[in-house]
Amino acid sequence: MAKVVPIADLRVTRDATLVGATVQEVTPTGLLADNRGRALRDLRISVTDRCNFRCVYCMPKDVYGHDYPFLPHSQLLTFEEIARLARVFKAHGVEKIRLTGGEPLLRKNLERLIAMLADIGGLDLTLTTNGSALSANARALKAAGLNRITVSLDALDDSIFRAMNDVDFPVTKVLEGIDAAAEAGLSPVKVNMVVKRGMNDHQILPMARHFKGSGHILRFIEYMDVGHTNGWRLDDVIPSEEVVRIIGREMPLAPVDANYTGEVAERWRYTDGGGEIGVISSVTQAFCSDCTRARLSTDGKLYTCLFATTGYDLRALLRESDEDAPIGNYLAAIWLQRADRYSEIRSANTVALPKVEMSYIGG
Ligand code: SAM
Fold this sequence. Notes:
Layout: E1 42-46, H1 79-91, E2 96-100, H2 110-120, E3 124-129, H3 134-144, E4 148-152, H4 158-165, H5 171-183, E5 190-195, H6 204-211, E6 217-222, H7 240-250, E7 253-256, E8 266-270, E9 276-280, E10 293-296, E11 301-303, E12 312-313, H8 314-320, H9 325-336, H10 342-345, H11 358-361
Parallel strand pairs: 1-2, 1-10, 2-3, 3-4, 4-5, 5-6, 6-9
Antiparallel strand pairs: 7-8, 8-9, 10-11, 11-12
Helix pairs in contact: 1-2, 1-9, 2-3, 3-5
The structure holds S-adenosylmethionine (SAM).
Residues 51, 57-58, 100-101, 103, 128-130, 152, 192, 194, 221, 223-224, 226, 230, 358-359, 363 line the site of S-adenosylmethionine (SAM).
């Protein structure tokens, strides 16, 4: 495995400050646009920084060992706090919320949070999971108001999958979870496969063959330089173009228009009617220019980019007062000055910059 750089816990880095901006009263119109004209539309919420997998490229065991200082419960946002923030974000334009982590299904009674978010109304609710607890929970998640689900699965071959999750978790259980989600009505289920050269690239075709015609949408994600623990190198990235070429040679593909502006996956359909796949080219084709996403860490810090180094502390505001307006004003001030475009400027020099781990900020 590539050299792992142990992190000094990046969570204790300073909070971001609003450079040159004053927090003014902003009436929520749902029409906030940032410094580069990008609207605020999506919010990803990390509901826990813990995970039961130790995927070698995300939470490697030698960093996230038994003594790893995960956040204590008191520092996590409560469900009530998350729902309160969701209302504020919605007023300022958010239409879609994705619950993630860590492994979101490790957070106890998650359906209760989903029901609270569904009660707000008008939000597209979705969740990203490793699928390990999905067969047991799919129906309850759907009943609580979850609209859709994305399951991460990096290999179909059981021994490769066990080695990648590094906790010896069998692939059959995840496949059962995917079926349970579809049966519960959380379809089409999206299946995300991160492709890393030399690790699982030979699984591209078996995965494509398996999910073709299943009604699930398999999406291939370029391996990214998130955080510092995975020893990322550009050479490890398999460009999406290559993925499309590999699959297209055996199962011909044709491009499909995006569902909406800002959709991260580029869509391709099997020309024989076997459904579609997606490719997410986070490294080779940056999609910063229409990125409408904000991220909320497990302990309530707002990040305006997956590659941001510091977050804005919303939890302090939540716990300071019952009033929502100051939180909305702060959010507006942050979004109005947002200028992030990390993936557009990614280079050999940016790889070493301080970054926050994905399990904390939410994948
Ligand atoms: N535990 C959940 C799961 O497994 O889906 C949610 C959190 S996980 C961090 C979210 C997604 O991020 C997973 O699909 C994972 O494969 C992906 N991911 C983690 N590290 C990545 C990296 N370096 N590059 C690309 N995707 C990554």
